[in-house]
Design goal:
Elements: H1 17-28, H2 46-59, H3 74-80, H4 104-109
């Protein structure tokens, strides 16, 4: 049986090198927006990348996202538990993995 981790449980990330480089450039040039939206097919690593980049930004342990290694620390634990005060996680899947509609009211209340 395949052991599929939740996006915030993945310590490594492979692929999408062009996007990794773009995110690294945003950080290095201090051009990071307050909101990033990742869109694409299910299972390609969007959420894993988003959580990894969040960890990089919030931990401030490395100046280069391409060389960033996730460490087991307080910030990583807060991200994995979805309890970091500067992280808002919104998913269109409910607790049972069923797709749901995200209403504007939910976005505004965050």
């Amino acid at each position: 049986m395949l052991n599929i981790k939740k996006p915030w449980e993945n310590d490594s990330y492979l692929g999408n090198q062009k996007i990794l480089e773009q995110l690294n450039t945003l950080s290095k040039n201090d051009k990071l927006n307050t909101t990033l939206l990742f869109h694409g097919s299910f299972g390609i690593g969007k959420a894993t990348l988003a959580f990894r980049y969040t960890n990089y930004i919030l931990s401030q342990e490395s100046e280069n996202f391409l060389k960033f290694k996730i460490n087991n620390n307080q910030i990583t634990n807060q991200i994995k538990n979805l309890t970091h005060p500067n992280l808002i996680y919104i998913s269109n899947y409910d607790e049972n993995g069923q797709s749901k509609e995200i209403k504007i009211e939910e976005m505004v209340s965050k």
